[in-house]
Amino acid sequence: MNDSWKKRGYLIRIESCIRTILDVKKVLESSKANLQILNDVREIELASQQIDPDLISEEDVSMLEEATNKLMRELKPLWEADSVGYIYKDVIH
Fold first, then answer.
1. What is the rounded end-to-end Cα distance, in angstroms, of the chain?
2. pLDDT of residue 41 exceeding 60
């Protein structure tokens, strides 16, 4: 796989994480959820904005994906307890 395709794949994966983070942030802000969790979401959002697509590596993308997955695991109890609203009204994938 050439570098152009590899970078394009990285950008798609990064964009997916960022969209998920922003969607979760919107729901948490509107639900007045746990402030520490919201701070963690903001921290991940800020870090994701610092990504330079020209310097990105598989390791960087994997770290962002793991941080996003960890966040979702931490938030799972809120959704299971119906403490916050839905992120999406319908299945999008």
1. 26
2. yes
